[in-house]
Design goal:
This protein is an alpha/beta fold and 477 residues long. It has 2 domains: 268 residues, 3-Layer(aba) Sandwich (Aldehyde Dehydrogenase, Chain A, domain 1), CATH 3.40.605.10; 190 residues, Aldehyde Dehydrogenase, Chain A, domain 2 (3-Layer(aba) Sandwich). 38% of the residues lie in helices and 23% in strands. It contains 15 helices and 22 strands. The strands form 6 sheets. It has a 7-stranded mixed β-sheet, sandwiched between helices. α5 links the parallel β7 and β8. α1 packs parallel to α7, α2 packs antiparallel against α4 and α4 runs parallel beside α5.
């Protein structure tokens, strides 16, 4: 059983100042996966102190960018060699089907390579002519101590999308893991040490919400990098604002899939199997509002229901399982409450619904659910459900489809499905989201990722992602 009895602080395993443990249990069969210390506020103080000392007195911030890149390249190689092991552990922790856990872990080396590529080309120091005279040395310097707070649905990806650029920039980090997946992130500590990251540069612990707020408000933390719900992001932004801390927030979504009249119905439905239901619907970018021409609504719903009813639901460790349990009973009950809301508001239940999937008696399962004839004003179309629930919304023309897609408090992702690529790009240009795909294209590890509106602040990936961990300094020559 892969348990940890100590936090990772200052390059060492350090006993927690408290005695409480988080039990990480499988949401499939309630089996104990392992235990980790429940960090206290005192543990947070120790971790931040280690990171502060490593930043103020250690070698990491003053190393050349090339030297840091060499260390991070070694880490990336060490991590990639264990991607299958990590996928299996995360699968046991959060119940997301193995095919998706493995896919995410296999994607991480590409993400790391992209960050290394950006860092190698980044303008760390540039001397240029000044205005009105002389010269100026422009420097990109590390921001400071970064608190990285991640969710449970793609923990290594969420962590490394922040840790790698922060470390490349010369920052030091306190990584706070979600209790639901409190185990897997602890393995990163020794990997960073083996790669040559100095002591105190990376610190790792698992904490609940109250203790996490102590991390957010800690006076020696310079920046918060967070992935999670919009509600939690608003709270973090409020707390961080009181201390004028920098923040980057990758938050929720309610992405639209716009199906144009000329789209191949069969191919589009099959593509939405992944775009709408991957990770059992527990993904911020999932296309959970499907906008279809009114005249094609019934045909489309029939095809979508047939696809959904053919998805394998069950043991997440089975490589053929497409829908696993949700991360917890609490999340299961939350999603059921949204299904009840959809029924109460008059949406048509085309597939799924309340109760356990056929043949299953245990686990935090929700039946893959399709609502048809949905109005965009309904709760199920406006709020992020974070489960295997999709709304099909009819529209009359493309202008209405664009208006419906934009009629959302979120703006993270989405897609358009059409036989006319140029027309798809034209539609994409009109959608207020941070990323948008034409016929399922993407992702691009070098392109900025993040959201408009309540889907977040800032960007990850690419040059923009690295820029969130630097300060700009101008030296007049």
């Amino acid at each position: 059983m892969p348990s940890f009895s100590h936090n990772y602080i200052g390059g060492e395993r350090v006993a927690s100042l408290g005695e409480d443990l988080f039990e990480v249990r499988s949401p499939y069969n309630d089996e104990l996966v392992g235990t980790v210390p429940a960090a206290t506020k005192g543990d947070i103080d120790l971790a931040v102190s280690a990171a502060r000392t490593a930043f103020d007195e250690g070698p990491w911030p003053s190393m050349s960018p090339a030297e840091r890149q060499a260390v991070l390249k070694k880490f990336a190689d060490l991590h990639a060699a264990r991607c299958d092991e990590f996928a299996q552990l995360i699968n046991r922790e959060n119940g997301i089907p193995l095919m998706f856990c493995a896919g995410v872990q296999q994607y991480i080396p590409l993400l790391n390579a992209a960050y290394l590529d950006v860092a190698a080309r980044f303008p760390w120091e540039v001397t240029r002519p000044a205005m009105p005279q002389g010269e100026t040395l422009q420097r990109c310097v590390p921001l400071g101590v970064v608190a990285v707070i991640i969710p449970w649905n793609a923990p290594h990806q969420s962590a490394l999308a922040k840790l790698v650029p922060a470390l490349l920039a010369g920052c030091t980090v306190v990584l706070k893991l979600a209790p639901e997946t409190g185990l897997d992130g602890h393995f990163l500590g020794e990997l960073f040490a083996e790669a040559g990251v100095p002591k105190g540069v990376v610190n790792i612990l698992t904490a609940d919400r109250e203790v996490s707020e102590h991390l957010v408000t800690h006076p020696d933390v310079d920046k918060i990098a967070f992935t999670g719900s919009t509600a939690a992001g608003k709270r973090i932004a409020t707390l961080a604002g009181e201390g004028l801390k920098r923040v980057s927030l990758e938050l929720g979504g309610k992405s639209a899939a716009i199906v144009l009249p000329d789209a191949d119905l069969v191919a589009t439905v099959e593509a939405l199997r992944f775009a709408s239901f991957f990770s059992s619907g527990q993904a911020c970018v999932a296309q959970t509002r499907v906008l279809v021409p009114a005249e094609l609504h019934d045909r489309f719903v029939e095809a979508l229901v047939e696809m959904v009813q053919g998805m394998k639901v069950g043991d997440p460790a089975n490589p053929e399982t497409f829908i696993g349990p949700l991360v917890s009973k609490r999340q299961q009950e939350r999603v059921w409450s949204y299904i009840e809301s959809g029924l109460a508001e008059g949406a048509t239940l085309a597939a799924g619904g309340l109760g356990m999937p056929d043949g299953l008696t245990q686990g935090a399962f929700v039946r893959p659910t399709v609502f048809s004839n949905v109005k965009n004003s309904m709760r199920i179309a406006q709020e992020e459900i974070f489960g295997p629930v999709v709304c099909v919304i009819p529209y009359q023309d493309v202008d209405e489809a664009v208006a419906l897609a934009n009629d959302s408090p979120y703006g993270l992702a989405g897609g358009v499905w059409t036989a006319d690529h140029a027309r798809g790009v034209e539609v994409a240009r009109r959608i207020r989201t941070g990323t948008f795909a034409v016929n399922g294209s993407g992702p691009d590890c070098l392109a900025p990722f993040g959201g408009f509106k309540q889907s977040g602040i800032g960007r990850e990936f690419g040059e923009q992602g690295l820029s969130h961990y630097i300060e700009h300094q101008a030296i007049y020559l």
